[in-house]
Amino acid sequence: xxxxxxxxxxxxxxxxxxxxxxxxxxxxxxxxxxxxxxxxxxxxxxxxxxxxxxxxxxxxxxxxxxxxxxxxxxxxxxxxxxxxxxxxxxxxxxxxxxxxxxxxxxxxxxxxxxxxxxxxxxxxxxxxxxxxxxxxxxxxxxxxxxxx
Length: 148
Known about the structure:
alpha+beta
């Protein structure tokens, strides 16, 4: 998270645009413990800014795993590619849910690299998703209207 204060009006717009869910694992604010964090798509340590177009929501697990990463290696092609950009890319083009709704599957080089880099299927996340599925809360509808 940034050391500078992001104006509250910008935080509200980011939360609204992100539909109050993590841009990476799609966890909804109402189901996670603690506030979803305003994250820098391009981290400030890598030249990113506090401009609204560089901000999105992320859960603590995804934000911590992402850290200052902007690129990762696709486990299939071994190419180093940019991580998924939840502000500009469509989640469902790059990811899908396993049949039981607990595992995020990367469909593209970007999706696969992001799954690995952000540890989107780590044990805690999958365990919690299993409970959300049982409650009928998951998986979320991930068809957002953004460019590919």
